[in-house]
Design a protein that fits this description.
Elements: H1 3-15, H2 18-25, H3 29-43, E1 48-51, E2 54-57, H4 62-74, E3 79-85, H5 88-101, E4 105-111, H6 114-122, E5 128-132, E6 140-148, E7 150-155, E8 176-179, H7 184-196, E9 202-206, H8 209-217, E10 223-226, E11 236-240, E12 248-255, H9 262-272
Parallel strand pairs: 3-4, 3-5, 8-9
Antiparallel strand pairs: 1-2, 5-12, 6-12, 7-10, 7-11
Helix pairs in contact: 1-2, 1-3, 1-4, 2-3
């Protein structure tokens, strides 16, 4: 048995898919198939059952999977991982899932705008990133982990506060608080305004979501945040925005040139098992 055969076997067993294992390891599906075929020939028995629902371990393969899990898990008892994120909420949930399995890994997370995070990733200043609506780029691979709606934030007692949802046209008489250039949230709002040909008055521009939240509390304007960023505050009401349902897809991303590094590959593998998408029922705002 060779290392690359065992690595391919472990990936297929975890993902229950040859194509997903190939994507995870940065290989072609035929390459994964060849590695598994050679391993099965070496073992002189089938290791996987192929069905329309997925790929499953044979009884004979289960002890080998226990060994490969130990082999590849213990390889990362120590080390460090540097991440960037355009918001803490999804990023820290991914980190928590990873730390549950690999508690000995030291992780640092730098927060910034979408533009800053993307620059850090392409500049090799971080190993991976958690970012909303990652741009399509041949240099980068992405694993989707969550999807979010946009919310309009208003002070409690505001004329809009009693509405179940609002459209951008409903906001014409209410000055908005804009986010800084490079903000994913602001880009989503601006793109939606352009699509529906609506112009909104600006109250001010602020450089962080925390500043936006405080400004809304003080009655300085209305703001926008993604649903995971809705504050737990009796002074603010969060209202769904009709035009921006499911507008934000959060992904774990890394450069293709970095994805074969063991610790990065393991982080991606954990991310691939997650589904952090919210539903309105699981996140009450009122």
């Amino acid at each position: 048995m060779r290392y690359f055969q065992l690595r391919a076997f472990d990936a297929v067993a975890r993902e229950r898919s040859f194509s997903k294992a190939a994507s995870l390891l940065g290989l072609t599906q035929p390459a994964i198939t060849t590695q598994i075929r050679n391993l099965e020939e070496s073992c002189q028995q089938a290791l996987f059952l192929r069905t329309p629902e997925g790929v499953y371990l044979t009884d004979a393969a289960k002890p080998l999977f226990e060994l490969t899990r130990q082999m590849f898990a213990t390889a990362f008892k120590h080390g460090s991982l540097k991440l960037a994120a355009d918001g803490p909420h999804v990023a820290l949930q991914v980190v928590a899932a990873f730390k549950t399995q690999y508690p000995g890994i030291d992780i640092s997370v730098s927060l910034g705008s979408q533009r800053e995070v993307w620059a850090d990733l392409l500049g090799y200043r971080v190993d991976a990133a958690v970012i909303g609506n990652a741009a399509s780029d041949d240099r980068v691979m992405a694993i989707r982990v969550a999807q979010q709606d946009m919310r309009v934030l208003v002070p409690r007692g505001h004329p809009l506060a009693a509405l179940e949802s609002v459209s951008l046209a409903d906001l014409k008489a209410h000055p908005i608080i804009r986010r800084e250039s490079g903000s994913n949230t602001q880009r989503l709002i601006d793109d939606a305004l352009q699509r529906v040909q609506v112009s909104l008055p600006t109250a001010m521009e602020l450089g962080s979501r925390e500043a936006v939240l405080e400004a809304v509390k003080q009655g300085l304007g209305i703001g926008f945040v993604l649903e995971r960023e809705v504050p737990d505050s009796p002074r603010i009401v969060a209202i769904p925005l009709v035009e921006l349902r499911a507008c934000n897809v959060d992904s774990v991303v890394c450069l293709h040139s970095q994805r074969k590094r063991g610790i990065v590959q393991t982080f991606l593998s954990v991310a691939a098992t997650l589904d952090l998408t919210l539903t309105s029922a699981s996140h009450p705002e009122r």
